[in-house]
Input
Amino acid sequence: MAVPKSKTSKSKRDKRRTHYRLSILNITECPRCHSKKISHRVCENCGYYAENEIIVFERKDKKKEKVEKREADQKKRRNEGGK
Ligand SMILES: [Zn+2]
Output
């Protein structure tokens, strides 16, 4: 197994680490929903990229179904309670 011949000095180590940094994201406005998004990425808000629907959100539909179910149940309870 290869073993380093000598210890890396603090100076050498720190000089190497000067290149460790995060790049700044290029944030643009979505042309469809006008929310902020990363350029050249699919919009997380509406799921569109260049007028093409990439992500079809199903969660919203499920939520709506749940709400509708709750409302239906509440109506049933009210009707049952009224009798
Ligand atoms: Zn969008």
